[in-house]
Amino acid sequence: MKIDDYNDNMAKTQNEGKTDVPLWARAPYSDVLEMFGQLSDVLTISTQGIRALLGMPGLVEALEKLNADPNEGLMDESKKKIEYAERLSQLAKHEVEADFPLLHSQAIVTIWGYLEGAIYNFVASWIQHQPSAKRVPELNKIKIRLVEYEELDEMERCHYLIDLIQVDIGGSYKKGVNRFEGLLNVFGLAGQVAEETKKNLYELYEVRNVIVHRHSKADRKLLEACPWFDIELGEKIIVTREMYGKYMHAVMDYMTEVLDRVFHFYGEDFRGFMTSL
Q1: What is the three-state SS of the chain?
Q2: What angle do the packed helices 101-129 and 178-186 form, to 10 degrees?
């Protein structure tokens, strides 16, 4: 799936006329599509802006010389502006030559957050709207603090229950896609995940943790969890455009799989629905 197709697919998933699957059950998928489109636009704007800085020193110098007094030459303030432009240009050159690793690093931290938020929001909506969700055995096991619970609105209560379920099933200690499959399994929505998708999401989870908690330097946990990842202990992870694209597609493949399960719950076929529009 290409970024350019996101808005079109988002509109399709919101179509009310050709499916009995409620919009609230499809909304997390549409939300992720929309956020990926926005993230792609921001990345494009940022990379183009950084590239534009490469020619900034010459432009700044020309403007300062144009406005300078011919008898006095460039003043100290003008020289400082040129030096600043040159410094930014060197930083921009490094980013361009390295394929914008900082931008892509922050982008993959963001897309993991998008995935996590989409799954939890979906499950919260499932608890709120789907009657059978409130009858699962796991909800009978958890203990709530009544005062805290009563102070929350309906959606907050659903998220409160999710947090307690995650504690009960050990979801917080699971890695990659397993963090979500355990929770989905509680409501009968777990299923098979393609090995390539599972592998890439596992890698995304570990790389994201290294970026956030280890200043992007590979630790032993990453090396042990992802032996296929070609990096040495302590080496800095350089997140490329290719890596970002791989992780982004893994997230969308997984979200598509989850939505397909939802359609099957309602006796419909998601892929057939999409091709019919």
Answers
A1: CCHHHHHHHHHHHCCCCCCCCCHHHHHHHHHHHHHHHHHHHHHHHHHHHHHHHHHHHHHHHHHHHHHCECCCECCHHHHHHHHHHHHHHHHHHHHHHCCCHHHHHHHHHHHHHHHHHHHHHHHHHHHHHCHHHHHCHHHHHCCCCHHHHHCCCHHHHHHHHHHHHHHHHCHHHCCCCHHHHHHHHHCCCCCCCCHHHHHHHHHHHHHHHHHHHCCCECCHHHHHHCCCCCCCCCCECCCCHHHHHHHHHHHHHHHHHHHHHHHHHCCCCHHHHHHCC
A2: 10
Q: How far apart are the first and last CA of the chain?
A: 16
Q: Which of 95, 86, 162, 153 is nearest to 122 (CA)?
A: 162
Cross-strand partners of 236: 217
Write down the pLDDT at residue 18.
73
From the CB of residue 235, how many other CB atoms can be counted at a distance below 10 Å? 12
Tell the residue number behind the tokens 């494009």, with chain if given.
44
Nearest to 126 by CA among 91, 162, 98: 162
Residue ranges per structural domain of the chain: 3-7+22-275
Which two tokens mark 256? 């598509």
What are 274's two structure tokens?
């999409």
Phi, psi (5° rounding) for residue 69? -75, 120
pLDDT tens-digit map of 221-269: 999 999 999 999 999 999 999 999 999 999 999 999 999 999 999 999 8
**pLDDT digits over 122-176, tens only?**
999 999 999 999 899 988 888 889 999 999 999 999 999 999 999 999 987 889 9
* Tokens coding 24: 């609230």
Query: In degrees, to the nearest 5, what angle opens at C-alpha 6 toward C-alphas 275 and 122?
Result: 85
